[in-house]
Design brief:
With 498 residues, this protein is an alpha/beta fold. The protein is built from 19 helices and 13 strands. Helix 10 links the parallel strand 1 and strand 2. Helix 3 crosses helix 5, helix 5 packs antiparallel against helix 6 and helix 5 packs across helix 9. Pathway: Amino-acid biosynthesis. Pfam families: Fer4_20, Pyr_redox_2. InterPro entries: 4Fe4S_Fe-S-bd (IPR017896), DPD_II (IPR028261), FAD/NAD-bd_sf (IPR036188), FAD/NAD-binding_dom (IPR023753), Glut_synth_ssu1 (IPR006005), Glutamate_Synthase (IPR051394), Helical_ferredxn (IPR009051).
Amino acid sequence: MADPKGFLTTPRREWPRRPVGERVRDWDEVCVPGALLPLVGPQADRCMDCGVPFCHEACPLGNLIPEWNDLVARDDWRAAAERLHATNNFPEFTGRLCPAPCEAGCVLAINQPAVTIKNVECAIADRAWEEGFAGPAPPERLSGRTVAVIGSGPTGLAAAQQLTRAGHTVAVYERDDRIGGLMRYGIPAFKMEKRHLERRIEQMRAEGTKFRTSTAVGRDVDATGLRARYDAVVVSTGATAWRELDVPGRELTGVHQAMEYLPLANRVCEGDLETSPLSAAGRDVVIVGGGDTGSDCLGTAIREGAASVTQLDIYDRPGAERDEDTEPWPTYPKLYRLSAAHEEAGVLRTAPEAAWDSDARLFAASTLRLTGDAEGRVRALHLAGVDAERRVRPGTERVLLAGLVLLALGFSGPDREDGLVSGLGLEMEPRGTIARDAGFATNVPGVFAAGDAARGQSLIVWAIAEGRAVAAAVDRHLTGGAGRLPAPIGPYDRPMTA
């Protein structure tokens, strides 16, 4: 605890964002470059080094937060990077993309703004790369065992890195043409520039991990044949089966899933396309779904030059303060939060005048039907207000102009149509995820499942924790011993709730 009075004398200060009018004209990250490092020393000093640090419990990775806060406050960046990487393979990813459940569990948050844990984490990770503290860590010797990891999202990459460093020969199979999964084509560059991803991929290559892109197991490669070639297989394909909107008019042209829309915008940023065939430019856009994916669509549509953008959230607008009766500390509360995209929408007034909120969101809103023109193109979305039980409130029906409707309703589990699940003969849970036992093993010997494909849609920090935990399980399977790798979570662990 570098400054015992830091939490009393220093207010919370977060990484400042670039001006809205500047950042919506490009795809660069929204925060001011170089503005974080001057802040994090005093912010790390606000950490109280609690006797029982609940931030550990709130983080599924078990990050050693008080330790690296103290080291940053003392300007020992090398040691801070070592402690951070001891529990997290990719802290620059979580430092940008994680909603920071650790901050909700911060003891200081009981009656003050929490420590800026996420910002400190991001600063350590970036400083580690700048100072050369994040070099490759290849194994001293090889085990002679081979592992196939199917899927290159955060779970697959974390599992592959852990197993490679343990001495196993690992090949990662990815159906897309580039490694990264959702981080590559689902997350917009203004939230995380792809250079951070490329840097980690090159680190993993230098350590010995092999990558096989444009290879869909079950379609391009026979699933049973792949299983026979490797000593173990990790299925970490993510939850790619999107949820549908079952309303009249869904079949109209111009109604698309968010994960049809976002990858095309990312491909424009990658240089693969000059413009997206689903560009929002000049169109009235309605996003159905109030979560992070919907927010990503919002920020993307703004940058593409949409005429207007409205985001529908079926839930009531949450409050600005934690409800101690229903969501007591240290659980992660549902609060009214202003993402960078919502801030942009509020400043630019991209929503029509009829919007219920200045940041383009309509809360407690349910889609009734979609209507179109004579050519079958969507032209309007009909909605109504709903109560807490999602029952339509009489007299609340209204119409929004819509030339592009994006569905951001979440995901139910892995794709059942690509041949992987059926090819391997994997058993499934009733909710659509891959069944596994307490050791991450599926019903097929030597095949393990992890990440959103088995857990269901979750956060990036849980995905990385799953990757580390399944790697420990696979290592035990291959070596027949107690295992040498850390397992931060079990397959049945869940976030803290009241």
